[in-house]
Amino acid sequence: MGDEINLKTRVLLPAIASFVITFVYFSFLKANQRDLAVFCNVGQGDAAYLRINSVDILVDAGPSKKVLECLGKHMPFYDKKIELAILSHPQKDHFGGYFSVISRYKIDYFIAPAVEGTALSFKNLEDLLEKKEIERIFPTAGYRIKIGKATIIFFWPNKEYIAKLPSENLNDYSLIFKLKTKNSSFLFTGDASPIVLDDLSQWAKINSPQAFRTKVLKVPHHGSANGLTWDFLILANPELALISVGKNNPYGHPHQKTLNYLKASNTKVWRTDLNGEFKIELGRW
């Protein structure tokens, strides 16, 4: 009888252990499939990681490989593919980290404005995209991307602006778009200037006053004085304003004028230089 009990124990224990390990593993996978948004702390630059319906999205990649720390922390360890890589505009504090990202992860689509960067490093990035055979998309106003029940809609640049002679200010070509999920919304503005934001504000007032309404506003141009406008802020009416900015940066970002706008509108502010990265699970907000 004793031998029989020991034999059963030897058979059952591995089975129980296997069940427990499997349960824990799949519970971990399920936890990592939650929709989330992370505004990474990459110093003086922009980078945001979003996971929507198991689709990985990276919006800008900061100036260096530091973005890999953010991705490694928040992407599931088994996931080595980023479906949508978005570049707001071709300046290095937004695209520099993409060299490391493209080397580490498979990229399905690279989305950027149809404007050529002037830096040699951007030419090198374009060569890398071609070498890796990554499909490129150049959206203009009205372009939409569906991700399950979530939607990305682009507001800027429009076709008329792209058709003009190149502007000396690459910031003016920054992709401006909103990601809308069931419970949340995020408005990305790159380094858009007041000229662009004023044009969009006028358009919205006439055509769609609710178009820019959002829960989270990625404040344009790291909170500089040459970015957010009062009219655009009122139209967006965010619950939270996210300023991606480096500590003790030489540009004086964020500017006090921008901070005054946000205070006057009773908007909560999150600064990566003071508060670090920002993370939110979308199903809980």
Explain what this protein looks like in three dimensions:
With 285 residues, this protein is of the alpha/beta class. Helices cover 35% and strands 24% of the residues. It is built from 10 helices and 14 strands. The chain has helices spanning 2-31, 67-74, 92-95, 98-104, 120-131, 159-163, 194-207, 230-236, 256-264, 272-275, and strands at 36-39, 47-52, 55-61, 81-86, 106-111, 135-137, 144-147, 150-156, 176-180, 185-188, 216-218, 240-243, 268-271, 278-281. A 7-stranded mixed sheet has the order 6-5-4-3-2-1-14. It has a 7-stranded mixed sheet with strand order 7-8-9-10-11-12-13. Helix 2 (67-74) links the parallel strand 3 and strand 4. It is globular. It starts with a helix and ends with a strand.
Using brief descriptors, characterize the structure shown.
seven-stranded mixed β-sheet, Metallo-beta-lactamase, Chain A, 285 residues, 14 strands, single chain, alpha/beta
- The percentage of residues in β strands lies in 15-25%
Distance between the termini: 58 Å
CATH superfamily: Ribonuclease Z/Hydroxyacylglutathione hydrolase-like
Estimated helix fraction: 25-40%
CATH architecture: 4-Layer Sandwich
Main pleated sheet:
7 strands, mixed
Number of domains: 1
The total beta strand count reads 14
Question: Strand order across the biggest sheet?
Answer: 6-5-4-3-2-1-14
Structural class estimated from helices and strands: alpha/beta
